[in-house]
Specification:
With about 500 residues, the chain is an alpha/beta fold. It is built from 10 helices and 29 strands. The termini are far apart.
Length: about 500
């Protein structure tokens, strides 16, 4: 069998023996490459007396495998695959940490990752009732990838929200995905669960979402639990709880675009103690043969347990977001900091959850400030982040607010042109803007549109300056500069970035 590097192949195995609890059957396969690499991958039950080994080759070449199981008919099965180079231009392997710049992300092939995230918790529901295709999911995800977003934060399952809903949703039930009793990861329903058995159909439909994200080069940031979305979960650390958790790790670890998050807002519910979260991380480490990144959506937990997580998932809504972010980065010089919620939830046709900021420009500014502090950020649009999902926002009436994706395309493009990982915050040179420096000859200054000018001193004698408009993506001409101050050509109209380069070197 021929496969592509970093693409996923399912190897199905039928068993001729009954299993009282098929989800608990021990089943794995050890893969050995022609270069001597070895990987033991757990399998999973996929219904109808069929088990699956899901594999994605981390390297090219020939791979042989042998299965092991406590069911005789699944034990000792062998096979071979040949992995050839990936042909997907946006696929670079698993997301990891840059070994030379440990506060930054990089992909498996060494390509830097300027992580820019988007939250969409109800992805699992969009096409659940369509067994043949996922058109709504594609309509939602395709524009994200087109606009430079490369990381999608989603829950494996949510039931409904705890806040009041916009009355306008009554006229558009097609946009409401809360309280859908026909969708549940266990048999039964959220109100009347059968915790002893997982709903294989749910996970088969969820497979399609993760695979589409893999095709598009989008990381699937999977929040395995969520406590504030009215989900009826089994008791913590019960057999049913462990079965659910382990099944997700077994089923999705082969996808190179997966990142694990134990729980959304993990410690906001007594069901999840610090010890429980640590034990869940240990379970991931034991089961995940590929070593995907692990985090917990709780900044306090991550700060108290930096050795347990691969990066800090941090939520901060404060008006001092920039300085607070600097503090965390200074405290943890060997971990990336990912602000998973900054309190800015861009307005949409419905009021879903406002947080503290809804103005699109303010939400964008908070993302820029996070990056200028050296962290990564998440974009929220209210009509996609939670139970309300407009999967085709650009096909709605002209007077409906639409997500400002183009602004985030400009942000992503800017930090590809000026590679994010090569710049560090330089707060001692902030003045009235926010400074980053590449350690060589380039300074970047982020200026809110309210700035009359940027006053400065102690510059090199010879500089060029150029301006970047964060709303349009336009660059001004490069001109010789005469400090001590600079005035944005878009003063009062748009936040801008000043690009200063020394020409003395």
């Amino acid at each position: 069998m021929n496969v592509k590097q970093w693409q996923v192949v399912d190897l199905p195995f039928d068993a001729d023996q009954p299993a009282a609890q098929p989800f608990d059957i021990e089943f794995s396969a050890t893969f050995t490459s022609d270069g001597g690499d070895e990987l033991t991958v757990p399998g999973f039950y996929d219904g109808d007396a069929r088990w699956v080994i899901r594999f994605s080759p981390p390297k090219t070449g020939d791979w042989t495998y042998t299965t092991r199981s406590d069911l005789a008919s699944l034990n000792g099965r062998t096979g071979q695959l040949t992995a050839t180079p990936s042909t997907r231009p946006n696929q670079h392997g698993a997301l990891g940490i840059d070994p030379d710049r440990p506060q930054h992300f990089a992909y498996e092939d060494g390509t830097p990752c300027m992580l820019l995230a988007y939250e969409a918790d109800w992805l699992f529901a969009l096409d659940y009732d369509n067994p043949d295709d996922v058109p709504k999911t594609r309509e939602l995800l395709d524009p994200l990838a087109e606009h430079g977003i490369n990381h999608v934060v989603t829950t494996v399952y949510s039931y409904d929200v705890e806040w009041d809903k916009d009355p306008k949703l009554a006229d558009h039930p097609e946009h409401e995905y809360g309280s859908l009793d026909r969708i549940y990861p266990f048999l039964g329903t959220n109100a009347d669960p059968d915790f002893a058995n997982l709903n294989v159909t749910f996970f088969q439909r969820f497979d399609r979402i993760v695979e589409i994200m893999n095709e598009l080069g989008l990381t699937a940031h999977l929040m395995i639990y969520v406590w504030n979305k009215r989900v009826n979960w089994p008791d913590a650390d019960s057999d049913a709880d462990n079965r659910y958790f382990d099944y997700i790790i077994k089923r999705y670890q082969a996808f190179p675009n997966v990142v694990w998050n134990v729980s959304k807002e993990a410690l906001n519910n007594p069901r999840c103690s610090e010890a429980y979260a640590l034990e869940r991380i240990d379970r991931v480490r034991r089961l995940d043969a590929y070593g995907r990144l692990v985090t917990v959506h709780d900044g306090g937990f991550c700060e108290r347990n930096p050795d347990a997580v691969d990066f800090i998932s941090w939520q901060n809504w404060s008006s001092t977001l920039y300085t607070d972010t600097l503090r965390v980065l200074e405290k943890f010089p060997r971990l990336p900091v990912f602000n998973i919620e900054h309190g800015g939830y861009e307005r949409s046709p419905y009021v879903v959850f406002t947080g503290d900021y809804t103005d699109p420009e303010v939400c964008l500014r908070r993302n820029w400030l996070l990056h200028f502090a050296g962290a990564y950020s998440t974009y929220y649009w209210q009509a996609a982040a939670w139970n309300v999902v407009i999967h085709d926002p650009f096909d709605q009436p002209d007077d409906w607010p639409r997500p400002m994706y183009a602004w985030y395309r400009h942000l992503a493009d800017f930090f590809h042109r000026f590679p994010f990982a090569e710049f560090s915050p330089l707060p001692e040179k902030n003045f009235s803007g926010y400074c980053m420096h590449d350690g060589r000859d380039t300074w970047l200054y982020y200026l809110p549109k309210e700035n009359e000018k940027l006053s400065s001193w102690r510059w090199p004698d010879h500089l060029t300056s150029q301006w970047f408009n964060t709303l349009t993506g336009a660059y001004s001409d490069i001109t010789p500069s005469t400090p001590p101050y600079f005035v944005s050509p878009w003063r009062g109209e748009a936040d801008a970035v000043l690009i200063c380069r020394s020409i003395t070197n």
